[in-house]
Amino acid sequence: IVFRQQTVDAKVAEQLDTLKRQDLVTGLANRQHFLSEMEKAVSSAISGKIDQALLYVELDGYRRTLDSIGVGSADLLLADVASCLGEQVGEQDLVARFSDHTFTVLANNRSHAECATFAETIAKAIDSKIFEVGQQSVSMTASVGVCLLTEKISRVQDVLERAAESARSASEEGGNRVVVFDPSAKEKAQAEKDQHWLSLIKDALNKDGFVLFYQPMISLQGAEGEYYEILLRMSSPKGEIMPNNFLPVAAKHGLLPHIDRWVIGKAISILAERLQQGSRCTFFVKISPESIQDGTILQWLTQQLKQAKLPGKHLVLEMPESKVVTNLKPARLLAQGLTQLHCGFTLEQFGSGLNSFQLLKHVPAKYIKIDRSYMADLPKHKENELKVRELCDEARGVGREVIAEFVEDAASMSILFSCGVSFVQGNFLQEPEKVMSYEFN
Fold first, then answer.
1. Fold (topology level) of 191-424
2. Measured between alpha carbons, how far is 78 from 178 in angstroms, rounded to an integer?
3. Cα–Cα dist 365/423, whole Å
4. I need a surface site. Which of 21, 25, 57, 326 has the fewest CB within 10 A?
């Protein structure tokens, strides 16, 4: 009796285990079991297995179909779809009901090309079948997203998101189609794009293909002379290219220091020309953290100023507060060196940190440029005006001059003047231009 009881218990345990892994409506694997198997599949892909893919099958127009057949018939329809899927998969594949009307298939032992063909087969099978739902017959289509499992994607969640995103793309394109996400192909396309930009950047460096744009900075406190922010563009036959298109690639390939030196060198040359013409001009030029890491920038800058016979007071370098915080030692050395050269240093995006003024104890910046978040619709936000006023009062107390950028209206100008801001700039005053045309007088 005891042995027979053990046999019965073993069978019951096996049945219970099967039920734990099974979706009750469709008989397919349930979400929990599927995710468990996906973890194993992703681990094997990281180890080098290259014959797996996730198929994310989403029924098109499911809600409309449900309105037609009635909610009570939903389980019958889903069970019939599950049966259709079951007829297409092999023993090596795992098919599951992943959510309400979404099914997933873990394709195994299929090349990446075969996985794409397999997905097409599933989409066609659903499209060609008439589903019997009680006394009614309905047709369905599906949008199938495919994510190939490679060592490039190391988390199950990432695989699911890519496959679901591909299924959404298929649906947005009209449904009843397959979209494949291939991490390797995407990486290759990105590499080709980077190489294109890298070639343009190197050409611009070697052939003076960059262009300086100038945006005036207007003194609200009667400072004499002309002040401009220097902004970088790249020349192209179709017009100037904005820096956000090429600077990320330059950063990836270690070219930011070269670009910084090109810009600073060009700025010094133009400043020297303006000085010879009798114009007292000051340029504010951005510098990247990458340019100050090796400690050679100050020596180079000293040589440039000497060769151009330009007093350092005409040049101000700028760096965001957040970048200075994460590069404190080289930034401090830079600011100290600039002071010795009689150049200026500006902390941009000031006020975004927890204790911005604490930073001034370590970095001798002559100017602080208010974070743009305080400038958006300034007249409508009293709390921003109070913050700007507080920044100006504290800056005055420690002998720093305050710059407000992104000024877009006269009301903001009036507020900034009353707060004691030293300089303002923005498209309201003048958009960046290729020539210095602002009438400061």
1. TIM Barrel (3.20.20)
2. 20
3. 15
4. 326
